[in-house]
């Protein structure tokens, strides 16, 4: 009898820690992490995943779990999964792996998620100089929609009023293939260089106040799948294995919010069998994921089908670097996403909060666009922290509008107006005020105990 539905190749028991899952999870990239399963091209298979924190960030009404989160464990990935053709021949280095997302969603029994900013001393966020403390909002899922009691919360009569409701554009924040040892060495060398020299050669850090310039290999928090912790092999691989935080040539943590049902991913293959891994599931996210832990993070599943394009790397990808390994994936966006017809768009230019001009700097311009949107929404009764988390996880659209007209880069942030309970467009009358517009309670927020300088807008009202 023919079988129907997806075969589960990685299952998750939410009552267990990430280190206790069977098959085991991993949170590093390395070619020697063994595959936990094998799939054939054309086979529909299901992969379940824990959230990026592995359950350490909870539904408790506090941001202390975010403030003290162990960021060395991010992200927990399900896999690696070996891919073979119908004759059992593995995918080869130089091939392309076609991955089709057939279905996805939250794990049954875990219909909730969170959005957060890390403490500035423990990861920070895009605007960490403005918001140095940890914050958190909890989101509840109702079918395709999500709402948060913290954004904006309850009104003055203490009755729950849902004022922001997001249609989910669910997607994997992270999906990729294993690097070869040659590619892993390239990653580690270039990221070590920016970590050691970046504060001298890249003054952008002074403006963005970014967290670590790079996250270099470390055995702290290391989980390597079937490789037993404490063994000589674990020590060796752990000291070489790349963190999963940035996107790279293998795909990885690209955080493409439109990568939902029906999407296809064309991933370069660097090791035999491809060794596909995925994790960091998001119910919804805005372009840029500006809060860093800034999508609606959740436990979730993917149902996938794979294909192998033999020799596809040479055929379709042109290296942009000194070796044939300097390539990037191609993404084909599927037909399913929320439909919005009206947007409010905020512009930013490459001039920082001190008034200093930067030359065609899109990061500074995007930061200005985000800040403009935050301060605008604050006029409608939202706290700046509520607006920050909301812009990180709602399906807003970020764009580089101009990158050629010296000296200013221009970036824009477009917010769908339909997610709000009121008309937030400018009008001839003044901004409405009154008890109804006071958004309480606020997001959960911890204290900032560090002594790094905080950026304040000199022209903004307290």
The proportion of residues forming helix, as a percent range, comes to 10-25%
Low-confidence regions: 154-158
Q: Could you give the order of the helices and strands?
A: EEEEHEEEEEEEHHHEEEEEEEHEEHHEEE
Radius of gyration: 22 Å
> If helices are DSSP runs of H or I spanning 4 or more residues, what is the number of helices?
7
Strand content: 25-35%
How does the overall form come out from the CA principal axes?
globular
**Mean pLDDT, as a whole number?**
91
Tell me the number of strands: 23
How do the strands line up in the largest sheet?
Answer: 1-4-18-6-15-19
By helix and strand content, what is the structural category?
alpha+beta
Largest sheet: 6 strands, mixed
- The end-to-end distance, rounded to whole angstroms, is 69 Å
Descriptors:
six-stranded mixed sheet; 7 helices; alpha+beta; 462 residues
Question: Could you please describe the fold and organization of this structure?
Answer:
By secondary structure, this protein is of the alpha+beta class. The protein is built from 7 helices and 23 strands. The strands form 5 sheets. A 6-stranded mixed β-sheet has the order 1-4-18-6-15-19, with no helix packed on it. Strands 3-5-16-11-14-13 form a 6-stranded mixed β-sheet, with no helix packed on it. The longest helix is centred in the middle third of the chain and has 21 residues, at 181-201. It is globular and about 70 Å long. The model is unreliable at 154-158 (pLDDT under 50).
């Amino acid at each position: 009898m023919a079988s129907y539905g997806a075969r589960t190749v990685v299952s998750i028991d939410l009552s267990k820690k990430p280190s206790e899952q069977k098959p085991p999870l991993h949170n590093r990239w390395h070619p020697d992490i063994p595959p936990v399963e094998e799939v054939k091209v054309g086979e529909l298979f299901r992969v379940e995943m824990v959230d990026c924190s592995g359950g350490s960030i909870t539904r408790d009404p506090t941001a202390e779990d975010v403030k003290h989160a162990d960021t060395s464990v991010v992200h927990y990935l399900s896999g690696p999964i070996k891919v073979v053709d119908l004759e059992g021949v593995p995918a080869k280095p130089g091939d392309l792996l076609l991955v089709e997302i057939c279905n996805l969603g939250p794990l049954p029994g875990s219909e909730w998620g969170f959005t957060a900013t890390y403490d500035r001393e423990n990861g920070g966020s895009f605007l960490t100089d403005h918001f140095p403390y940890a914050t958190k909002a909890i989101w509840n899922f109702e079918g395709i929609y999500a709402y948060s009691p913290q954004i904006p919360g309850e009104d003055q009569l203490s009755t729950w009023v849902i004022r922001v409701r997001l249609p989910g554009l669910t997607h994997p924040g992270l999906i990729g293939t294993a690097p070869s040892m040659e590619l892993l060495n390239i990653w580690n060398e270039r990221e070590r260089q920016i970590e050691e020299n970046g504060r001298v050669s890249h003054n952008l850090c002074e403006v963005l106040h970014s967290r670590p310039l790079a996250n270099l290999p470390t055995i702290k928090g290391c989980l390597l799948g079937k490789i037993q912790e404490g063994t000589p092999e674990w020590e060796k691989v752990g000291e070489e294995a790349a963190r999963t935080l940035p996107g790279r040539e293998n795909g990885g943590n690209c955080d493409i919010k439109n990568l939902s049902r029906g999407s296809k991913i064309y991933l370069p293959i660097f090791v035999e069998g491809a060794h596909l891994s995925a994790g960091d599931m998001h119910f919804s996210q805005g372009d840029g994921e500006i809060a860093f832990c800034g999508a609606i993070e959740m436990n979730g599943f993917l149902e996938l089908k794979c294909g192998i394009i033999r020799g596809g790397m040479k055929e379709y990808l042109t290296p942009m670097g000194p070796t044939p390994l300097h390539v990037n994936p191609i993404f084909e966006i599927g037909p399913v996403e929320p439909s919005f017809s009206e947007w409010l768009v905020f512009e930013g230019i490459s001039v920082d909060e001190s008034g200093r001009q930067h030359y065609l700097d899109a990061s500074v311009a995007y930061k200005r666009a985000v800040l403009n949107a935050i301060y605008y929404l604050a006029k409608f009764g939202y706290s700046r922290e509520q607006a920050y988390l909301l812009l990180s996880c709602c399906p807003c659209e970020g764009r580089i509008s101009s990158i050629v007209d010296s000296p200013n880069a221009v970036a824009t942030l477009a917010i769908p107006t339909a997610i709000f309970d009121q008309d937030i467009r400018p009008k001839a009358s003044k901004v409405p005020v009154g008890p109804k517009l006071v958004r309480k309670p606020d997001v959960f927020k911890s204290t900032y105990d560090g002594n790094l300088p905080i950026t304040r807008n000199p022209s903004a009202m307290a």
